[in-house]
Design a protein that fits this description.
Radius of gyration of chain B: 16 Å
Shape of chain B: globular
Helix content of chain A: 25-40%
CATH topology of chain B: Arp2/3 complex 21 kDa subunit ARPC3
CATH superfamily of chain A: Rod shape-determining protein MreC, domain 1
Order of helices and strands of chain A: HHHHEEEEEEEEEEEEEEH
CATH architecture of chain B: Orthogonal Bundle
Radius of gyration of chain A: 32 Å
Largest interface: A-B, 26 and 25 residues
Number of helices of chain A: 5
Largest sheet of chain A: 6 strands, antiparallel, barrel
Oligomer: heterodimer
Number of helices of chain B: 6
Number of strands of chain B: 0
Structural class of chain B: mainly alpha
Strand content of chain A: 25-35%
Order of helices and strands of chain B: HHHHHH
Number of domains of chain A: 1
Distance between the termini of chain A: 120 Å
CATH class of chain A: Mainly Beta
CATH class of chain B: Mainly Alpha
Structural class of chain A: alpha+beta
Amino acid sequence: MNNLIEFFKKNFHYFLFAILLILSIIMMGKSMSYSKYKFARICQNTVGPIQKSWSEMIHRFSLGQENDLLTQQNVALMREHKNMFIYKNDTVISMMSKTDSLHPRSMRLYDYTYAHVIYKTTDQAFNYLIIDKGSEDGISRDMAVTCPRGVVGVISDVSDHFSSIIPILHPDSRISAIVAPINQVGTVVWEGPNPQVAYLENIPQHLEINIGDSVLTSGFSNIFPKGLLIGTVKEVSVGQNASFLTIKVKLATNFNKLNTVYLIENLHKAEIDSLKANFKNE
Amino acid sequence: MNNVASNILRIIIVLLLQVFICNLIHLFGFITPAIYILGLLLLPLELPKSVQYLIGFCCGLFVDMFTHTLGFNTAACTIIMFIRPYIVKALNGRKTSDSVERPIPGVKDFKWLISYVGVLTLVHQSLIVMLETMKFHNFLYTFIAIIGNTVLTTFLILCTEYIFYPVQGKNK
């Protein structure tokens, strides 16, 4: 008997090894039928929360990539928005050459793409933005620039790989706008140093404008599609020029946080402009 | 035994490194280094064998819990802890050396170390990969995965060892 105990003591580690190995093999066999295995579920419950918070942290590294994918998806969706098309439900003769497969009775008027802002100023008298796409990417002058929050501005100059934008925050910028519920047409201009406030001009005094009304693009300039948000009415007062109201507009776009912008091209701008040329007033 | 704390700390660090960083590496889609066996390889050889097996078992289980492969790493770690003394004995050859020695640079030369780490990693990775891909019968894939994992793991472990146990200048 003593000998047996002695033998067991001496070779204890062999027995332990055998036990541990058998244990792990049992675990292996059971983890094949994973869902039934209680021990696996216990492990999952203890380790799961740690793994979740860790993977959330790791996830942040790929956010930029994911953002690009979302931007592309957004562009694809916005191309199908109804203000991108001219509808011709009642034309007798189908005159359009370019028909869109999704909307057989419509003609595409606007097209979207996107770019990233690489340089911008917001605190000067003449602000401008530079984006990372140029004429080789199909950017041309007078394309409209928007961002997810609202309107940004208009492309002014194009080089091979870069373009400059005149934003709303520029004294030369004039954007044709309407005030939402009454659809009165005016012009959004920027004067002051504040990058969040612009003015809406040419609204006659007799009209009732409420604080909080949306200011949208009118679509008459052939640059912006109809109905994009520019901002909301912040303050209404009677100006020195007695026939018009002075309306302060809080811009929807936060220019300080601008990164990704969408570019909108009017595919038939030249055609419309050639018609307009006959009515040159000045 | 005065460095119990440093051994425990080292094992905990490599385990955390393994589950949070190395397990996310999938080089070429299938090479995942198993750096956590560094903690096992650096355990003192004079430790009681049963303790060594238990440590191997627990380390393997910990990694398995995070990768949902219960049993695979556990078995492989227990087995390499079992064969470790024999590998050391075989590598020492006929040279009679005293039992107290550590498998680190400075004590052992590079050839000894690369054989030691390489052989044990190869065994470990062969066990894991073969157990995992048993049902697929894809020999080439199994072979490449074993070799790739072994080479990368050995490389990383040797680098780590040489960084943390720099060879003294007087030897050269």
